[in-house]
Amino acid sequence: MFGVVFPNRSFPMDISAFTQIDTFHWLLDMNTFVGEAYDSIREVCIFLINNFTLPQDKALAVYIQSPGSPFLFCGAVTLARPSAVLSLPWPEPGGQMQLTAADAAPVSAKIGVSVEDLASLPSLDVAAERKIERLAMKVGENLFNFMQSFCGVDGNKLVVPMDILDRWFKKFQERAKRDPEYLKGFAL
To answer: What is the crossing angle of helices 180-187 and 164-178, to 10°?
Structure first.
């Protein structure tokens, strides 16, 4: 059905490396693969095996879980996108998960794969969304720092010149034209 590769860390592994929970869910216990160093695995390539037919409206969704944390969606593959290299942003162990007395915190990190409705999943390109978010934050920080150098204080309000956005944007554009590497620094 599917296989995974941890780039620079493993050979291709097929579904037999995973524990099948039910018809549509599989788990890979990272303790058996890398022990407690699971967070050193930063990406996974998941791919559909030849001749496997996944319905058009379904996807194989990939999730990660650190010990004591909830599962976190990382991305998915579909017939239209039969392979993907996904970032693995491992949550902090023991994160926001609420446990009852009957529950036991997971003792090892896991990668989960499940067949799900494509329409119910978030964007399949989680890594691109995170890059866009980081880019927006860096540009916003650049604007804030620029404005701060021109602002004054009036009671509990900051006062900036009316043309500050125009001045910042013009400076930003000029710098980007002079130095093509400048914008690449924002995308890191």
So the answer is: 110
- For residue 134, what is the enclosing H or E element? helix 126-148
Place of tokens 């998941």: 46
Does the pTM exceed 0.85?
no
Q: Where are the domains of the chain?
A: 2-122, 128-187
* Residue 71 falls in which region: left (phi positive, over 0), alpha (psi -120 to 50) or beta: beta
- With CA atoms as reference, report the closest residue to 118 among 57, 28, 175: 57
pLDDT digits (tens, 9 = 90+) for 143-161: 888 888 888 878 888 788 8
| d(C-alpha 129, C-alpha 43), whole Å | 16
Is a pLDDT exceeding 90 seen at residue 94?
Answer: no
Q: Yes or no: say if 141 and 152 are a contact pair by the CB < 8 Å rule.
A: no
Give the DSSP letter of residue 90.
P
Relative orientation angle of helices 126-148 and 180-187, to the nearest 10 degrees: 120
